[in-house]
Design brief:
The chain is α+β, with helices and mostly antiparallel strands. It has one domain: outer membrane lipoprotein receptor (LolB), chain A, CATH 2.50.20. Helices cover 23% and strands 43% of the residues. It is built from 3 helices and 11 strands. Helix 1 packs antiparallel against helix 3.
């Protein structure tokens, strides 16, 4: 009987480690109300950088570096992109992959039900499909922080976003996620 029990522990030991990783990622997500970070975004080989703030659920404000001088903001229902030439693009957030990425309760539910993939002992990846969107979410395997995502945007462009210099639970102004007025 002792041999059987020991064999059962040895067989299931790797799964215990992966379950612990999932639990730590979920616990970390549960502790976050907002994230501030720098980002690098690669859309079909075009690299853009800037700063963002996410407030759960579904709010984001990104200011792209001066070269692009673009702003992306969501108030939780609409997503507006203001380009450097003054054009505005408005989308319903539920029509974009950000609808899922910016919803930590949705992410937690998906993570609980998905099998994780550890990449080079550096990253933990979860892949899910929602409303014709394939979304890959990446976490740091050491500190369990969200470090990026990969999606196809509404124009079917591959969008890879990497987060760094991450700060959690900063004090934010009340109207921080107010949509810019359209001229």
């Amino acid at each position: 009987m002792k041999r059987f029990f020991l064999l059962l522990i040895i067989i299931n030991f790797p799964n215990l480690g992966l379950a612990a990783i999932k639990d730590k990622i979920i616990n970390n997500l549960n502790s976050i109300e907002n994230l501030s970070f720098k980002f690098e975004q690669n859309i079909n080989g075009k690299i853009e950088t800037g700063d963002c703030v996410i407030q759960y659920p579904k709010k984001i404000f990104c200011r792209y570096d001066k070269l692009n001088n673009k702003i992306l903001v969501s108030n939780g229902t609409s997503l507006v992109i203001k380009t450097n030439n003054g054009n505005y693009y408005r989308y319903r957030i539920e029509r974009t992959p950000l609808n899922y990425i910016l919803d930590k309760n949705f992410l937690i539910q998906e993570i609980q039900n998905l099998k994780e993939r550890v990449v080079d002992n550096k990253f933990v990846n979860f892949t899910f499909f929602k409303n014709e969107n394939e979304i890959n979410i990446f976490f740091d395997a050491q500190n369990y922080e969200l470090i990026g995502w990969q999606t196809l945007d509404i124009y079917q462009n591959l969008n890879i976003t990497y987060l760094y210099t991450i700060r959690k639970n900063q004090i934010l102004e009340k109207n921080f996620f107010k949509l810019p007025p359209i001229n």
